[in-house]
Design a protein that fits this description.
There is one protein chain. The protein contains ten helices and 14 strands. The protein has helices at residues 21-31, 34-40, 54-58, 78-91, 104-118, 122-125, 176-200, 207-210, 280-285, 343-353; strands at 71-73, 94-98, 137-140, 155-162, 217-224, 234-239, 245-250, 256-260, 263-266, 274-278, 295-298, 305-312, 322-323, 341-342.
Length: 368
């Protein structure tokens, strides 16, 4: 990515001697206004808590535009679709899907509802603002606010939709019906995709669902306001997703990038398409055959950018199931790369680590 400017101490808020990071974090958090509140206040310079370290910006990977993200037509011949999915997840770890069966009206209404929630008056949104882990519907900014080197320019509404059914009354009224319908539609699509992925592993189509990969899902409505100094921060730091699979609906603004061959590649918005990417747990149980791709979102002057991510995993659910590399995939020539773990242990490590830095998968690799 082209570097426009490298921040100095003065850029970062006036000098290290007067900068109390913890106090600034607390002030931001306790305002319960999120990044949207900062943008609405008319700031022209980023608070220091959002500014990336100069060495990270200087070492940033270049963006290259020659590689095209795979696009798969799900209405095509199943054998060809499975082959296309296999190629995509073994190389990039990410692809876009069209003709997926979710009505365009549902996509448009979901993006609009997500945007409308984040643009509610602060006093209305504030009642949903919390860092309480077990809350099934919550609004916040930067789940890892107190653990990462810098905050991201992003707010999120987080909804745990399954396996325990979410009571519609827990959702804000203006997006209640839309989110419930979107959840129903995305569950069907997720089930279909897990069937394709099972076949791509050489297993029967029901295999991944039979081990509860599709049992739970959460919906995250992200909001990225226009940023006064986008070259100094990120909308979302580099990371891979912790669950089995992510299905992302993004608007037309753009900003999503994936790391491929040590370069950032733009995932350009495609009308009525979903972005699908492999998560850490699917890389773990496929013994590295499927790639959990690292990705990020750049900040920009335009927008706001809105996206809706569906994570297939079991958030806060007391499952006793232990996951490890699928035995049918292992052999003398393909020994296990990862140790067994529960979703709770994996998620606990992932969320305690926060975004950025090394992949959480590194912690679960067997020593060679």
């Amino acid at each position: 990515m082209k570097i426009l400017h490298t921040p100095t101490i003065s850029d970062a808020g006036g000098g290290s001697t007067s900068y109390d990071r913890l106090q600034q974090l607390k002030s931001f958090d306790e305002s319960k206004a999120g990044v949207k509140g900062l943008a609405d206040s008319g700031i022209t310079k980023l608070p220091q808590i959002f500014i990336r370290p100069p060495e990270e910006i200087a070492a940033d990977h270049q963006t290259q535009s020659q590689f095209t993200i795979p696009v798969i037509d799900l209405s095509g011949d199943r054998a060809k679709v499975v082959s296309g999915v296999r190629d995509a997840v073994e190389t990039v770890g990410l692809f876009q899907v069209v003709n997926h069966g979710v009505p365009l009206k549902v996509l448009e209404e979901t993006l609009r509802a997500a945007r409308e929630f984040h643009e509610l008056p602060q006093e209305v949104k504030r009642e949903y603002y919390t860092r309480e882990k077990m809350k099934k519907v919550k609004y916040g900014s930067n789940f890892d606010l107190y653990r990462t080197r810098y905050a991201n320019w992003r707010d999120t509404m987080f909804c745990v939709m399954a396996p325990d059914p979410l009571h519609p009354q827990e959702l804000p009224l203006l997006c209640r019906d839309v989110i419930m319908e979107y959840s129903r539609q995305i569950k069907v699509l997720g089930s279909f995709l897990f069937g394709l992925l099972s076949e791509a592993l050489g297993l029967n189509p029901e295999y991944l669902e039979s081990i509860d990969c599709a049992k739970g899902h959460s919906i995250l409505c992200h909001y990225y306001p226009p940023c006064p100094q986008p070259e100094l921060t990120l909308g979302t730091s580099k990371h891979s997703d912790p669950g089995f699979l992510t299905i992302l609906l993004q608007d037309h603004i753009g900003g999503l990038q994936v790391l491929w061959q040590n370069q950032w590649v733009n995932v350009l918005p495609l009308h009525s398409a979903f972005v699908v990417n492999i998560g850490d747990m699917l890389q773990l149980i496929s013994n590295g055959k499927f790639k959990s791709v690292e990705h990020r979102v750049v900040a920009n002057h335009g927008g706001p950018r809105v996206s809706v991510a569906c994570f297939f995993t079991l958030d806060n659910y007391p499952s006793q199931r232990i996951y490890g590399p699928i035995k049918e995939l292992l052999s003398q020539d393909n020994p296990p790369l990862y140790r067994d773990t529960s979703l709770q242990d994996f998620n606990s490590y992932y969320y305690s680590k926060g975004l950025g830095g090394n992949s959480a998968l590194d912690h679960f690799m067997l020593q060679r």
